[in-house]
Amino acid sequence: MSATFLLERPSASKLSVHFQRFEFKYHLSPIQASRIAGELLASHMKPDPTVEAAPERRYTVTSLYFDSPDWKCWRENESGERRRFKLRIRSYAPAPDPGTLVFLEIKRKDDAVVTKDRVALPYGVYREIFEERRDPFALLGYGAFLGEQAVRDEFLWRMARFSMRPVALIRYERLPLVGRHHERFRVTFDSGIAVNAGSALAAPDLFLPVFAGKTVMEVKFNNALPHWFHRILQRHGLQRRKFSKYYNGVAVLKHHRRYPQS
Question: Whole domain around residue 21: which residue ranges?
């Protein structure tokens, strides 16, 4: 397959949708986050099975975000566009080795409905293609990725269509909970959110705080919020709030005049 394929958008019908769900966000103090997490664990939720062996049952999320030269994704978030998308490469390992999997992700948002597709590849392949060769289209010749080719092709198509390049690195600690009886109902607590103006996943630890002293609780579900969770929100007086880690991270970089690299 040649790079000229990317001049035509891959058919949406060929995309493999990993999930489509609602995402509600809430701003919490550390004390609120601790209390609510405790209430959830004592009743209807449990730690995500993937972090049972992790310290404090948390993991580090590192996401390298892409944007166009005219900041298309950032501006659409600022203006409140109902339908928008983001491209990012995500790692769940603080210090990945060449065989650690990282994920190319396309996240689309239509109001409160979020759809995410992703494809995995070894960190060593990511480094060779995106950092050493700086030729994302070399992915077309690799069989090392895991997932639908259509996801990879759309990621590359969007990069080419909007001349997107890596611009900001967002890192945070996540405490993930899932429903005891319905694991698709998820609540995550993200703290220590920070941003770096680097263009690689393994950027130096020169991060700036994005939401200092606050935790973002994200509630992720498919149909309707359970009644018992509504009661928890009411008891703590919580209201939905908007929060984009990417948008706020770039705003911090602009404020400190540490503009993301071109």
Answer: 17-255
Mean pLDDT of the chain: 87
Least confident among 49-58, 64-73, 80-89, 186-195: 49-58
Alpha helices (H) in 80-200, listed in sequence order: 123-126, 149-162
More confident residue, 256 or 163: 163
Closest CA relative to residue 50, chosen from 59, 41, 42: 59
Res. 260: pLDDT tops 70: no
Domain CATH number, residue 45: 3.20.100.30
Please name the residues in contact with 153: beta carbons below 8 A apart, sequence gap of 6 or more: 5, 6, 10
Task: Assess if residue 102 is contained within a domain.
Answer: yes
Assigned token pair, 177: 């909970």
Give domain status of residue 5, yes or no. Answer: no
Q: Is the pLDDT of residue 253 over 70?
A: yes
Mean per-residue pLDDT, 5-20:
45
Tally of structural domains, the chain: 1
The CA-based dihedral angle spanning residues 65, 78, 27, 54, taken in that order and rounded to the nearest 10 degrees: -10
Between the alpha carbon of residue 66 and those of residues 86, 162, 174, 245, the distances in Å are: 7, 10, 22, 13
- Does residue 169 form part of some domain? yes
In a domain, residue 11? The reply is no
